[in-house]
Amino acid sequence: MIHQVKCLECKNTKCSIQRYCSEISTQVAELSKSQSLYKTGQYIFTEGSPVRGIYFIYKGKVKVVTAGIQNREQIVRLASEGHILGHRGYGGEIYPIGAVALQDTTVCFMDNATLKELFDKNPNFTYAMMMFYSQELRKVEKRIKYVSQMTVSERVVESLLYYINTFGYEKGSGLMNLGLPRKDISALAGTNADQVSRALSELKRMGVLETKGKRIYILNPEKLREIVSDFDIAL
Amino acid sequence: MIHQVKCLECKNTKCSIQRYCSEISTQVAELSKSQSLYKTGQYIFTEGSPVRGIYFIYKGKVKVVTAGIQNREQIVRLASEGHILGHRGYGGEIYPIGAVALQDTTVCFMDNATLKELFDKNPNFTYAMMMFYSQELRKVEKRIKYVSQMTVSERVVESLLYYINTFGYEKGSGLMNLGLPRKDISALAGTNADQVSRALSELKRMGVLETKGKRIYILNPEKLREIVSDFDIAL
DNA sequence: CGTGCTTTTGAATAGTATCAAGGCCGGTGG
DNA sequence: CCACCGGCCTTGATACTATTCAAAAGCACG
Fold first, then answer.
1. B228 phi, psi to nearest 5 deg
2. Which of residues 208-227 of A touch B (CB under 8 A)?
3. Is residue B110 classed as helix, strand or coil in its secondary structure?
4. How far B26 CA lies from chain A's nearest CA (Å)?
């Protein structure tokens, strides 16, 4: 629990609460909302724990994970400022996934009861959330498609693209923000660190990127997109 | 367009409209709803076509498909009586998937405008649909997990289980309703017919099922579940 | 400068897709 | 009723891809 930013004063324009809830409701929310800081590597909530509510990322970067077979970590989603966490659990008993801070991250939390009250008082908010879920569903299904039909190298490329779309990279050098270890890339691509290394070496030979230790520099994002262009379906 | 069943007289208790919309709204819906019959093999809507609204299965069985690489068909979902179709598209421009009747199927159609009106007048309906989307999201993510971590044989087992959960099978003989060709099983499991055949042979040797031509008899559903029990996560 | 971790690469192994051939139905027409 | 045909199913051989294990090299940190 840290310095509290009130919804009414919040500058995060991506937050659905601010956009779709009337002022009165926002004040209701204020009462029950809490804001917390999580340090790099810390769990915001864990897979299998009871659903207490929904989180909004105020600032920071997060990976959403699930434990696969033999407890191998699988990254389900990357999220940053303005994104919602824990919505997959809403309506269920326990969170089917966990969320880990990739850097120091501030999140707003709203418990189930408050959330329900907001839904009841703001049909527009409910509608907006429904549309959000619908969009998420389309995204996940696109993901299913590439997970099941791409080769390992292609999945690595897709992961890199997803990564720079979500977290960005330095326009000049091409350095990817927040050096993601190979282990994380492999958890995103659904393979192991060895294969990621091979795939990256191949991409180096093609001249689309450069690596210096664990740092990855994207030199030719266009060419990256070309590699997986066959899979690009309308979202 | 066939014999019309009015929402108010509809006996389909699974339909969300009937459950969550007030009587007045139901009458509004009545005006714009249409009901159509699709013959086996016929497309209810195709991937890539503009989103006109949402479909509800009144009676029948449907597969939801998407074209993969090299136009290889991939089955995204199986649906039967009471299930919703086309909701993934809602809020988007075009349907990201298509729907094909697996047997003669009657569906109710509701266009975007009517749907929006129902949402506006029935917050409970919006809320129910939101919860539905949330649940769908959890399901699809469970699917991602098994698609990316199971072996081919395991995916075939999972497909069979999914199939009998959705469409059922004769309790006595174990005969699966609606003989699904190997090609469809492979489209569901994300592989080809050859591999499905191998997996089925293996299952035959294990004594969990029997085949007679294209017909599949499930002898030991419990043992089937055991095979993939490592992947069972809470939904 | 070690020390420990991550990355990279090679080699062996396992798993999967593809191709081809043969067999088994299921339907059609003589 | 039976013979034929076409399509689907099954299975083997082969090529390819991915995983695993092991070892060496590189980097980060004290």
1. -110, 15
2. none
3. strand
4. 19
Strand C contact residues in chain A (129-168), C-beta within 7 Å: none
Contact A130 B135 (CB under 8 A): no
Interchain CB contact of A87 with B (< 8 Å) = yes
Q: Where are the beta strands (DSSP E) in B32-87?
A: 34-38, 43-45, 53-59, 61-67, 73-80, 84-85
A90 to B134: CB separation less than 8 angstroms, yes or no: yes
- Per DSSP (E only), the strands in A39-72 are 43-45, 53-59, 61-67
Q: What percent of chain B has pLDDT over 90?
A: 44
pLDDT in tens, A49-89: 999 999 999 889 999 999 877 778 889 899 988 899 999 88
The residues, ordered by sequence, that sit 6+ positions from B139 with a Cβ below 8 Å of its Cβ are B235
The pairing of beta strand A43-45 with beta strand A98-101: antiparallel
Write out the two tokens for B47: 């991937």
Q: pLDDT tens, B14-57?
A: 787 777 777 666 766 666 678 899 988 899 999 999 999 999 99
Q: Which residues pair with B64 in a beta bridge?
A: B77, B99
Give dist(CA A126, CA B113) in Å, integer.
18
| Percentage of chain A exceeding pLDDT 90 | 39
Q: How many CA atoms lie within 13 A of B132 on its CB side?
A: 20
Residue B159, CB half-sphere, CA atoms under 13 Å: how many?
28
How close is the nearest chain A Cα to the Cα of B132, in Å? 9
Number of Cβ pairs < 8 A linking chain A and chain B: 133
Q: Which nucleotide is nearest to B184 (CA to C1')?
A: D8
On whether any CB of chain A is under 8 Å from the CB of B121, the answer is no
Select from B75, B74, B33, B76 the least CA-distant residue to B53: B33
Q: Which residues contact B70 (CB under 8 A, 6 or more apart)?
A: none
